[in-house]
Amino acid sequence: MIFVASFLVQGALRSGYDPLRHPVSSLSLGPEGWVQMATFWLTGLLIVAYAVGLRRARCGWWTPVLVGLVGVGLVGAGIFVADPISGYPPGSPVPAPPTAHGIAHQLFSTPVFTALPAAMLVMTRRFFRSSERGWAWYSLLSAPVFFGCFVLSSLGFNQNPVLTPVGGLWQRLTLVVGFSWLAALALHVRRGP
To answer: How far apart, in whole angstroms, are the C-alpha atoms of residue 117 and residue 110?
Structure first.
């Protein structure tokens, strides 16, 4: 939950930044951008270590691989700075022209928003097979909620007139759903079967 706490605090303190409108990745822009980049790296490395732990906890192969991809994606997203978007930083053009760094950032971000719901679905199957119905339903419902929020945020960031003012909100909901599921799974796996 370091990631969520970091983007909430940064978003509240950053001048010209609107958490309802702008993506979390935009926090990597400007003089204070190193904080978000470090947050990407730290969270990504912790998630890669978590993926190793999931494998050792006998969560199969696919869930650790998918969760590991999420971690690698976050590390990569922290290496490459996002492009300006939706008028942030102030004075940037709308739409801003894409750069190599921004494209690399988006490519590394992709597993965060695709591999994580896939891991939820893989664990849904495992939970149903082990008769852990509550966990199975939690995972099964989390995946489409996560992906649906992601789609709405993407439409907002692509300047959909209705969703642009709340694209950042939808992305934050996406991340809270995803990281909450990861945290809950960690606690569940730690307790054992």
So the answer is: 12
Tokens at residue 75, please? 């590390």
Question: Quick count: other Cβ atoms within 10 Å of Cβ 96?
Answer: 16
Indicate the angle between helix axes 100-129 and 62-79, nearest 10 degrees. 160
Local structure of 177: helix, strand or coil = helix
How many angstroms separate the Cα of 92 from the Cα of each of 6, 29, 84? 24, 11, 6
pTM: 0.93
Count other Cβ atoms within 10 Å, centred on residue 17.
20
* Tokens, residue 184: 């809950």
Mean pLDDT by 10 residues, the chain (193 residues): 92 94 96 96 97 91 97 97 93 90 96 98 96 97 98 94 96 97 94 69
Give CA–CA dist 178/70, Å, rounded.
11
Helices and strands in the chain: count of H runs, count of E runs: 6, 0
DSSP per-residue codes, 128-144: HHTT-HHHHHHHHHHHH
